[in-house]
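Study this chain:
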Amino acid sequence: MRLSKGNMLPLATSIVVFVTTALAQAPQQHILSNPADIQHIPSIHESAIQARRILNLSSIATLSTVFPHTESSEPFENRPSNLAGAPIGLIDYYASCDPTPHEPTILAISIATSFKNARAGSNVTLSLRYHPPVDHPPSDDIYTYSPANLPRFSLLGHIEPIAEGEVTKDGFDKCFFERHPDAIAWQPGNAIHKSWWARLVVEEVYWIGGFGDRAYIGWIPVEEWGSVTHEEVKNTRLVGEQGYEQR
């Protein structure tokens, strides 16, 4: 049947009534919100602990920067001319090292796009997601290990060089190489590329703990992020880890 202007309005009205009725009758599903009537959603501090555990468990993340509005001064880069203000995310190594485990340690390669953008003034975002252990226990719920329901977060801030004396005194290099032995090849002073030690100074933290009916979604104050202790990180467990208990 071809729809005419005369019968489109009644049909549209019927659709609106049907959808409205269906929504009213369907059970409420909190997928992308933090409902006040649902219990056992982790608090902001508990979410910060979970995020810090993910930071500690992993050592690879996506580092995102923005291209500057100035043209590249490197003639061999051949950068397209229309990238000013465009974001780019690239995988990079990091390590959570004392005495500042909440501010990821990074071995920056001067020729790398991310660090050229950072030196040109770009803010930086480090994005991580939780990967359950490969031998995690099975679940009858298809959403238990669904990537859409697993925690992920972004650390927003800027890159700050770490002084050579501080690297040696606090052992940032030793900590980093324990997580990334191959990175010894491009440590500062190598014969391949100029490199330097840096940290991501975290200014904001955005967290998605999973579906909104069972996890916190939103900003974590940076003070909360930095206040998490080693003991809290050590004692918490994420879904799929041995000892995890669903609350």
